[in-house]
Amino acid sequence: MWDYTDKVRDHFLNPRNAGPMDDPTVVGEVGSLACGDALKLFLKIDDAGRITDATFQTFGCASAIASSSVLTELLKGKTVDEAAAITNKEIAMELGGLPREKMHCSVMGQEALESALKRYRGELDPLVKPEGEIVCKCFGVTDVQIRRAITENDLTTVEEITDYTKAGGGCGECVLDLERILAETRGTEPAKPKPVAPKRKLTNLQRMQLVTKVIDEEIRPSLKKDRGDIELLDIEGAKVLVSMRGACSGCPSSQLTIKELVQRRLRDAVDPDIIVEEVRS
Amino acid sequence: MKVIYLDNNATTRVAPEVLEAMLPFLRESYGNASSMHGFGGQVGKFITEARERTAQGLGCSPEEIIFSSCGTESDNTAIFSAVRSQPEKRHVVTTRVEHPAVLNVASHLEIAGYEVTHLKVDELGRLDLQELEDSLRPDTALVSIMHANNENGVIFPLERIAEIVKSKGILLHTDAVQTVGKLPIDLQKLAVDFLALSAHKVHGPKGMGALYVRRGVPFRPFMLGGHQEKGRRAGTENVAGIVALGKAMELAAAGIDEENTRVKALRDRLEQGIMSAIPDVRRNGDPENRLPNTSSLAFKYIEGESILLMLDQYGICASSGSACTSGSLEPSHVLRAMGVPFTFAHGSIRFSLSRYTTDEEIDLVLRELPGIVSRLRAMSPFTGKDEAAPGCAC
Ligand code: FES
């Protein structure tokens, strides 16, 4: 269960201004059933451009309903220009905060309000034909929406973008694009994959010394803790021949120990091509 | 406020008898079973007894039981053991609706270069056995198919699956976390090689599980360390948990008839009550072959978390089929695999009952739920409309 503030719970359980409005001046809409969140905002605006009534219909979780409810309260009595200045941050703040993962509910409130105000002003509703390119197909989020969420909320990670816009919260295919947009918007370089360490060129002698050192200093002490032991018999190129001793000899899991402990450690520390084989005595 | 707990597929209440059985091992009998002294050594016989009780509940021999920390560890152990013991085989078959304890291991194997076939389910959550048969190959190391699904309760025909898989000489693992204690399981007749179970789903404590490994099946331990469990699962024995599991298994075996009559009747009353009082409700999953305690219902036009939170006001605990409450934003992978339409998937709720569920509790749900659904529907922009609102390209 999410950790909701008392105010979120209150607005969810006792939503203010819920339901459609008869004869609204304008209606703003965002979201869809497929997205899992949708909000329809009804506004009555008087001739002086003041919002005299606001109601909503929401499909969504508790924080979506609470965000819509608190938004209608914020809107009543404001002029259209004052309303246009309301941000998702303000909606979330008014609720005493939302869980990080639910911030997209406050963004939905802001977007529904914008949709309504643009219609009121007779401008093209950007949400009827979304502005920009769809980046996240799962949730239909455009690059414009993503860039805006980054700038307005000072987002620094892809996870935060998902929390605020839902982009990246489905199949994850868009995550690389989100990284790119994040870097572009913030003017930073996208994180480059860490360069893989070049394979070490070792002489036979160096390899032998390094294998001996890792076995003596790391592997043997850990086996000894369980009363086991290991003996290094020979090294033939990348092949390391060992024999298990003590409790390890005859242990049903000795093969696993060789592959998962000895071979893996030697591959990490010495050479990724190493193959460890047990010589049974 | 009284808690009405209808989320038993998530976890169950510890049975009082189980708690009593485990307490001495948390108080005075705290010795380590591997110790040489008598104080520690004496707990060994309780482990033996618990192993026998667990084996009895499954119709297998005690030596075939390995105690573990949970169902997830048991699933992981079985799958990794199967692939490591047959390094030349690089193919694994599972289903799209497994628990993450299996699905995430399958993805891990894919990354490691294995090929994994994920079998589909139909709209009722059923497998296509022909697809299973066609998927088997000479290099198939393992088939891992759950016994019953945790979300929709659909039971897979494991005996038939075993016939198909074993006729090809392939290892078969089943995650039986949801069926142990709810359905009779007889491993003499059921030809699986590995079976995973978890104590906290059968009124035992959390942090305790077991894995059945059929005698003669090659085995590679997952946990390495000391020589506990005959070297098959290292780590100091969780004696209290093991004793608790033994007791829980004993109680579960005795309660299977009740599960199939009283609990099932309660579940059916709940389901029919809801479906007749509330319009636009749909059942997710096969109505016939499913767990006697599970009902997954989808309420059109509204969203699951909202229903859950309103139910919570009355102390009613259920779970949501949309993964919203768990941090993910999409409907659950099980509902998606079944092709449940979005109009329903987001509004799915699972009720799962137990031997402690009462008639009065069901009455309370039937009394409160219709009002909750109509309040939420009155708030929904989609009520009465089937099309999605414009503006989203998803
Ligand atoms: S495309 Fe963005 S999560 Fe699927």
Residues in helices of chain A, as a percent range: 40-55%
Number of helical segments with 4 or more residues of chain B: 12
Strand order, largest beta sheet of chain A: 1-2-3
Strand order of the largest sheet of chain B: 2-8-7-6-5-3-4
The total count of helices of chain A amounts to 10
- Main sheet of chain A? 3 strands, antiparallel
- Structural class by SSE content of chain A: alpha+beta
The largest sheet of chain B, given as strand count, sense and whether it forms a barrel, is: 7 strands, mixed
The span between the termini of chain A is: 59 Å
pLDDT below 50 for ≥5 consecutive residues: which ranges of chain A? 193-198
Ligand kinds: FE2/S2 (inorganic) cluster
What keyword list fits this structure?
heterodimer; A: 281 residues; alpha+beta; three-stranded mixed β-sheet; 8 strands; 18% strand; B: 394 residues; alpha/beta; four-stranded antiparallel β-sheet; 12 helices; 13 strands; 14% strand; globular; binds FE2/S2 (inorganic) cluster
Description:
The complex is a heterodimer of chains A (281) and B (394). In chain A, strands 1-2-3 form a 3-stranded antiparallel sheet. In chain A, strands 6-7-8 form a 3-stranded mixed sheet, with helices on one face. A two-stranded antiparallel ribbon of chain A has the order 4-5. Mean pLDDT of chain A is 85; it is low at 193-198. Chain A is α+β, with helices and mostly antiparallel strands. The longest helix of chain A is centred in the C-terminal third of the chain and has 21 residues, at 204-224. Chain A is built from 10 helices and 8 strands. Chain A has helices at residues 6-13, 62-75, 80-84, 88-94, 103-120, 143-153, 158-165, 175-186, 204-224, 254-269; strands at 26-32, 37-45, 51-59, 134-136, 141-142, 228-236, 239-246, 275-278. The radius of gyration of chain A is 31 Å and the shape is elongated. Chain B has 12 helices and 13 strands. In chain B, helix 8 packs across helix 12 and helix 9 (304-312) crosses helix 12. Chain B is globular and about 70 Å long.
